[in-house]
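Example record

The entry below shows one chain as it appears in the dataset: sequence first, then structure tokens.
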Amino acid sequence: MPKLNVSESVLINKPVAEVFKTLNDYNTWTAWSPWVITDPETKVKVASDAKSYDWEGPISGSGGMKITSEKENERIDIDLNFIKPWKSYAKVWFNLKDEGDSARIEWGMESKLPFFLFWMKKMMTNLLGMDYQRGLSMLKEYCEDGKVHSALDFKGNGSFEGCDYVAFKTNTNIKGVGEAMSKDYTKLMEHVMEKHSDKVAGNPFSIYHKWDFANGGVEYSACMPVNGDIEMLPGMIKGSYPTTKVHTVHHKGAMHHVGNAWSAQYGRKQAKTFKINKSLDPVEEYLNSPKDTAPYDLEANIHFAIK
């Protein structure tokens, strides 16, 4: 059976003893779990000693976790058993390292894929790595601020109004997409708002043409809706997106947590909550501009075109 190994880390600006206390108490996990936030109907049962945890959700499936050993402020070992969508077992651990007033946390997992899913190894490794990154980012905020700056509102089926737009189209890696988009939108919005503000026709948005989870690549267009012609910069393109039915998840909070909404949508796509329209790419619509809002005040709609 193909082996699966995942490991991600984060620096948390709290003493290692405080972070250890959070990690070895399953009562805290629902506050920062990268899976519970995307599947709020998940039912969670925490043991009286807070050392084991069972879950069942319509998107996240079902299973259980149990702390099997602890070395205070240094390491926690966990047995993880999946029941649905397929039975599997994993060894999970947290390594904690004291760095003065901060703690370096490594979250790792070792498992095996069912033999018939051998072709998914690379993709699953990258997807789980992204889940671990989301979880560690939320753990960091939970430990440092006492709360996670991310909330999802599941809007369900609706519509997205079509528009003409100008855009910069970019290929990059998934880990670098935030920096690449920041550059694209800075250039795009400064040009359009300075010279053609009277032709702006709505909220800026991104069209995601390709997510290559196996190789970690992404292709997107950073778009501004416009009415009429505008002066084109080198590399700028024109396009149109039709009015269409969509399934929408709304994210409010820190921009670096918008991946929670994307994960929620992809989970529902895989669970066939809606029937995807494969002819149209997903859209991320910024209700508040990423450039003009405070770090924790971003609002964005993630639209998946449906039939």
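Notes for this example: The radius of gyration is 21 Å. The chain has two domains: 3-148, 155-305.
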